[in-house]
Input
Amino acid sequence: MILETVRPRGYNDVGRVGHYFREGLLVVMDLTAMADDEARQLVDFAAGLICGRGGDMQRLSPKVFLLIPSVPARPGTTTGIVKRLRPRDYNEVLYVGHYFRNGVPVVMDLTAMADDEAQQLVDFAAGLICARGGDMQRLSSKVFLLLPSGMAKPSDVTDNTEETV
Output
C-alpha cells in the first residue's frame, strides 16, 4: 500500500489528488494552509472522486482527510483497510498495537486526549514502530498514521510540484 500526502495551495492543485487516487494510492489531503471556501471545494472534489471510482474518505482533523481507493496500487497488498482509532485514555493503547501487529495501517487520533496522555501514546507508537518496523507520520497536531513494515514509506509532495493530469 502506498501513501501520498498532498498539501494543495489552491483549487488548481486538485489534479495531484485525483491523479494519485486514480492510481490506487492512499491520499492524505492536508488542506490546513487553504482558506475555508477553497478547502470545501477540494472536499467536494474528493467526494466526487469517491463516488466515481469507489473507496472511502475519512476526516482525520477539521482540514485533513484520508482518501482510500477501492482498488489498492499494488496487487496482492491488503485492500484499502485503514483502522482509525480514537483512544480516550492510555488503557486503549493495546488496540493500536493489535491492528498494527496484524499489518493494518492505523490512524491514531489523539485529539480527545490530554496532552500528557497523548504523548504517552506517541511514545508507545514509536516503540511499536521500532520493534516491528514500519513508519509513523504526523498528519495533524494530534493525529498520526502508523504504517506497518512492508508498506511504502509516505512521501510528502512539495507544494511547488507541477503536474498536469
Remarks:
- The first strand starts at residue 3 and ends at 6.
- The mean pLDDT is 80.
